[in-house]
Amino acid sequence: MSQAAFDDRVAAYAQSASHREGPTLDLTRELAQARPGDLVLDVSTGTGFTAHALAAQSARVVAADIATNMLRHTRTTAPTALQVVQTDTLALAFGEQTFDVVTCRHAFHHYLDGNLAIAEMARVVRVGGRVVIADTISPDDVEVAEAMHAIELARDPSHVCNRYAAQVLELMTEAGLVIERAVHTHTEQDFDSWCSRTGVSNELRGQLWGGFNGSEKVRAAFNVRETADSRRFDWPVLIAAGVRRA
Ligand SMILES: C[S@@+](CC[C@H](N)C(=O)[O-])C[C@H]1O[C@@H](n2cnc3c(N)ncnc32)[C@H](O)[C@@H]1O
């Protein structure tokens, strides 16, 4: 999907509660272990929630993304310590071993080539430095995994795929990272806000909610629930930290 498509989503991401706060942000910050003065790269920073959270810990943060408008927003809302750079995660515009920490939150499922993305993150982190990847993952059950993929792709054409947790850890290991911690959590979503973020029509909304309720197994896997005034579900998330060994 083109950079322009992400450029159109700035306002939606900037208002997204699940990007602004919650366990995936807290755990990304915790696993990153950034210390005051560390140089941190946050790839696919979007509107910069993770970058801002790390900069608030006195780390020096470079917020990188492929989309011009995302970066314009991030730059204008940035604390002074934050630098903004336009670059593709699959071809990072930084030298070998530039950073103490690299973070990547809620973006990995957009990458066409997950191996290359992790290899690039591992390349630019220093030996002994840490790469933290936090994103939605595919459940192990095939029926549930297929339902998740179909729903996510219909809602968001920029979705490529959710990897299995074991796949993410394997890719990190292959890239020369020693897995330090891997934490399973979830991101709680308000279904209608989640649909609005990508401009889903009412008709498609009905189909997607039908997908969530397609079977008891799918409903249970995503903790799908409905009250008089809200429809909610949870996506499974893995947050993994790996340390570059050589
Ligand atoms: C969901 S947003 C990221 C959220 C953000 N990391 C946070 O913590 O709030 C996904 C971002 O990935 C970016 N993106 C997608 N593919 C990319 C690529 N190949 N290189 C760099 N950024 C990319 C999009 O422009 C978008 O800003």
What features would you highlight for this structure?
binds S-adenosylmethionine; globular; alpha/beta; 12 helices; Rossmann fold; 40% helix; 8 strands; 246 residues
Provide an overview of this structure:
- The chain is an alpha/beta fold and 246 residues long.
- It has a single domain (3-138, 159-189, 235-244), classed as Rossmann fold (3-Layer(aba) Sandwich), CATH 3.40.50.
- 40% of the residues lie in helices and 26% in strands.
- It has helices at 3-7, 10-14, 17-20, 23-32, 49-55, 68-76, 114-124, 142-155, 165-174, 191-197, 202-212, 216-221, and strands spanning 39-43, 60-65, 82-86, 99-105, 125-136, 177-190, 225-226, 231-244.
- Strands 1, 2, 3, 4, 5, 6, 7 and 8 form an eight-stranded mixed sheet that branches.
- Helix 7 packs across helix 9 (165-174) and helix 8 packs antiparallel against helix 11 (202-212).
- The longest helix is centred in the middle third of the chain and has 14 residues, at 142-155.
- It is globular, with a radius of gyration of 17 Å.
- The model has no long low-confidence stretch (mean pLDDT 95).
